[in-house]
Amino acid sequence: MSDETINNHEAFVWSVADLLRGVYKQSEYGRVILPLTVLRRLDCVLEPTKDKVLERAAKLPTDLENRAPILMHAAGESFYNTSKHTFKTLLADPDNVAPNLRNYIAGFSESARDIIDKFNFDTQIDRLDQHNLLYLVVSRFADLDMRPEVVSNLEMGYIYEELIRRFSELSNETAGEHFTPREVIRLMVNLLLADDDQLLTAPGIVKTMLDPACGTGGMLSVSEEYLRNLNPQGRLHVYGQEVNAETYATCRSDMLIKGLDASRIRFGNSFDNDQHPSRRFDYLLANPPFGVEWKMVANHIRGEHKTKGFAGRFGAGLPRINDGSFLFLQHMISKMKRPEEGGARLAIVFNGSPLFTGAAGSGESEIRRWIIENDWLEAVVALPDQLFYNTGISTYFWVVTNRKSPKRRGKVQLIDARESWTKMRKSLGNKRKQISDDQIDELTRLYGAFEEGPRSKIFPNESFGFLRITVERPLRLRWEITQDTLAAVAADKKVTKLLSTRKDLLLEKLRPTHGATYPTEKDAKAAVRDALVSVIGEKPTPVVNAIATALAVRDPQAPVITDRKGNPKPDPTLRDYENVPLPTKRVTHETDTTRRLNTTEYQTAINDYLETDVHPYVPDAWHDPTKTKIGYEIPLTRHFYTYTPPRPLQDIDKEIKTLESEIQALLAEVTN
Question: Does the reported pTM lie above 0.85?
Answer without folding.
Answer: no
